[in-house]
């Protein structure tokens, strides 16, 4: 699947766009709920095997625990998404790719946990891929909620290394692509979408999916010395900001501010998908950048301020982040956005 751009897709294996209207992923939320999407099933538990990967497989639950300690959320205020079904996934994924996920060796390669190749696939489906499918459903419904409320944060998702026909880098489903597909299918006014990808790694998955799609604008700020080095995918980037290893707060925040503003001016989007990876934090063994915790909090504030002051709906996904302290930083950033009145958590307190 070279491109899932709706207006120029000729892939005979793709499902009709109208199928998105039959999905159970879009749901209404109650008056007591706030635009934070999460459920316990996000977290991965594979008999301790998940610890073989640097990723904190319980990060998403730890974010919520921190928010609860701050008395910013409670269980009843969170939006619990539905699991993305195979029919949902087929809107952007090829049948052959989804079939490959039924082989444990392929799941092991994607998750970068080699011993998982020896685990029966039925177990990987339940313990690893099902959490990813719930997070994917979370990203999709976050898109709907953002259109209604102006913003939404999925405390998960952001699988930016996965495209329609290939996974990798701990990303098994193309939730960013699917979220945009749903937005453009359900909302006629959403003609242009901007992806602001500030994870430390290049977002080659969505870039491959939207190659040649003029109505999806991609800003990608990443460490040019680390995975995935996907030169082909870089052709889809509208604003490419390649960083040197160990870039710190001052230079990083200056570039983010400049290029987010410039990208918004060039694209004038009707919705923004913000991939807010925290693997840019100093000490992250995979991101290899040197942004402080306060730098991450300020980065998110800059993005939300520039987007929301233009009254553009924003969907935030938490993406990468490979330190045990990452969850607390995400929670602190959400709290800061609330304190600065860039989001409103009051109905869930």
Automatic annotation (TrEMBL):
It is found in: Nucleus. It catalyses: N(6)-acetyl-L-lysyl-[histone] + H2O = L-lysyl-[histone] + acetate. Pfam families: Hist_deacetyl. One of its GO terms (cellular component) is histone deacetylase complex. One of its GO terms (molecular function) is histone deacetylase activity, hydrolytic mechanism. It comes from the Eukaryota. SUPFAM superfamilies: Arginase/deacetylase. Keywords: Chromatin regulator, Hydrolase, Nucleus, Repressor, Transcription, Transcription regulation. It is an enzyme of class 3 (hydrolase). Its main location: nucleus. GO terms for biological process: epigenetic regulation of gene expression. Gene3D superfamilies: Histone deacetylase domain (3.40.800.20). Interacts with HDAC6. Belongs to the histone deacetylase family. This is Histone deacetylase 11. It comes from Halocaridina rubra (Hawaiian red shrimp).
């Amino acid at each position: 699947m070279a491109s899932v751009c709706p207006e120029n897709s000729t892939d005979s294996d793709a499902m009709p766009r109208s199928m998105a209207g039959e999905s159970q992923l879009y749901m209404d939320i109650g008056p007591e709920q706030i635009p934070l999407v999460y459920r316990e099933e996000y977290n991965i538990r594979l008999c301790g095997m998940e610890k073989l990967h640097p990723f904190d497989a319980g990060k998403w639950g730890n974010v919520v625990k921190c928010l609860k300690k701050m008395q910013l959320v409670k269980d009843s205020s969170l939006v619990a998404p539905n699991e993305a079904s195979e029919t949902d996934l087929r809107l952007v994924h090829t049948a052959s790719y989804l079939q490959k996920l039924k082989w444990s060796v392929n799941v092991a390669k994607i998750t970068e946990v080699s011993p998982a190749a020896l685990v029966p696939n039925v177990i990987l489906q339940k313990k690893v891929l099902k959490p990813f499918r719930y997070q994917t459903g979370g990203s999709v419904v976050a898109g709907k909620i953002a259109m209604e409320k102006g913003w939404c944060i999925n405390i998960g998702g952001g699988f930016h290394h996965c495209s329609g026909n290939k996974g990798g880098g701990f990303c098994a489903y193309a939730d960013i692509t699917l979220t945009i597909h749903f937005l453009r299918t359900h909302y006629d006014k959403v003609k242009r979408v901007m992806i602001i990808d500030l994870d430390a790694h290049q977002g080659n998955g969505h870039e491959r999916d939207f190659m040649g799609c003029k109505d999806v604008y991609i800003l990608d700020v990443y460490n040019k010395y680390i995975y995935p080095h996907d030169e082909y995918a870089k052709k889809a980037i509208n604003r490419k900001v390649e960083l040197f290893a160990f870039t710190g707060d001052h230079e990083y925040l200056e570039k983010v501010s400049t290029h987010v503003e410039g990208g918004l001016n060039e694209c004038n989007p009707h919705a923004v998908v913000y991939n807010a990876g925290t693997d840019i934090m100093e000490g992250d063994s995979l991101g290899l950048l040197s942004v402080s915790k306060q730098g991450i909090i300020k980065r998110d504030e800059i993005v939300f301020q520039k987007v929301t002051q233009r009254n553009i709906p924003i969907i935030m996904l938490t993406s990468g982040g490979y330190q045990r302290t990452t969850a607390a930083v995400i929670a602190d950033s959400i709290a800061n956005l609330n304190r600065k009145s860039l989001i409103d958590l009051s109905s869930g307190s």
